[in-house]
Amino acid sequence: MTGQPHLAAVERKLHVPQDQAAWSTYAPRFERLAAAELRAQDVPAWLAEWSALSAELQDAGSKLTVHADLHTDDDAIQGRYKTFLAEVAPQIERANHALTEKLLAVPGYVPAPDFALNYRRFRDEAALFREANVDLGVVHNEQKNRHSVITGNQKVRLGGEELTLPRAKQRLDSPDRARREEAWHALQASQLEVAPELDAVMLDLIATRTRLARNADEANYRDLRWKELDRVDYSPADCAAFHAAVRDEVVPPLGELVGEIAGRLGLESVRPWDYNRNNLLDPDGREGLRPFQTGAELEALAQRAFETLDPGLAARFGQMREGGLLDLESRPGKMTHAYCSYFPTTNEPFVLMNVVGTAEDVRVLFHEVGHAFHGFYSGDAQPLVWNRWSPIEFVEIPSMAMEFLTLDHLGHVFNDEELTRYRRKQLEGVIAFLPWAAQMDAFQHWLYAEAGEHVSVADLDAKWLELDRTFHPFVNWEGLDEAARAKGWQYYHIFQVPFYYIEYAMCYLAAVGLWRAARQDPAAALERYKTALRLGNTVSVPELYRAAGTEFRFDREHIRGLMAFLKEQLA
User: Mind giving me the DSSP string for 303-318?
Assistant: First the structure.
């Protein structure tokens, strides 16, 4: 599926009728729920009605968001999305808060075991609610959308061509060092071109986030965000210990690994264009694997992989292919990130990517479709919309585990030598990712809990450079202008989903554990995977990890043990 028929199916899936994007359609139903006499025995039916209403609104919001990300250069589509954020989203927040307070006030109500955790979360959310933050939240969303528009329309001029960011980044995988360097300089120039705009957006976001925290009577934005994200199983101190463990247990072996590759390639040192954490250089100087050319080919090869892995997963992916729930290819005006969205009324996930034909695209597709499976299975098992998906500390396990669980099902994509390379890249990718994750998390802890509200762009740049030198000391920047290096913090998650990043590291560690178990008993590991997905939001984070067959740990000893396993597998 590619070209116009595919795009037409996507547009149909994302269409939101005018009345479904208007608050007037939903307001009477909220009013009825708010006015209803509510006794303890009435709560289950009342919750079901509220859940169905929330699902409809989530549908509309998700579809408008995805549509805007596919058309960052279309003023009409952007305008419709902004109108929803400004006129409907605040009303949803106020109405949901009123219903939450009504639920919490029901005398004698004891939530069922599968709703107990969400009842506690409702109570905590109600305590954080401030009317002043409703309108300020509109401003916050508008500022984040400015980032999407700027980066979605970003171009790279390279070799007489104007390329999208994903296509330009593809050149960084070339075995030709001169070609890599040329691409790297072009990407740096593009980044510096938009950097002043992104600097301004970030300063506005910091000011807004500081006000949000102050309005909620929190000492800083980290404290507010900690509660918003329901982080009850670990503390900021645990995160700081993770940063130190990665610095000591992962950075040195990563430096050795990168140095060995450089030595085999005859490089005198590792320059910035020689290091791509998503795809380390091939030690034999071979071209990067190019397993497909079009989005349709990528869909087909993934379909065959899922068919050999599990018929149920294959059927789900087939549903996505046929239902206009995949948009994979890179186009001008399309937001450059990859993600999975979700439409709860139909229990359908939607995957957006920007593929250019690389093996890395194969990995990312399995990752995003792992998220999609999470939506499908939790949606099947959990009628209430709040019980679907899972806490964010688990939500990356379905995706990252799928990267590993498909490793033995790609014989139709790669020959034996290529498959060995692909598997090696997967293992190297975990090692290379952990320092980046620690750096991203450490930067945000500093920014929101230590730097203070009057932090400057120069402060942001300086802190990022300090952290980059700590977590990537093996990259040689001698003689280069580090202005673009200092802008490494201008990354999607910093703008769009603050403090959501350490979860990737937690879940990668768990995914490696799942893969280790799957090598002993693949069927049992896959069944545990599905069981954990079906639990959704009904049990705690440690319980979800145990259901999947692993532990909720990211301490030094655990990291050291998994690093030993990874190095053993690479050897």
Answer: HHHHHHH-HHHHHHHH
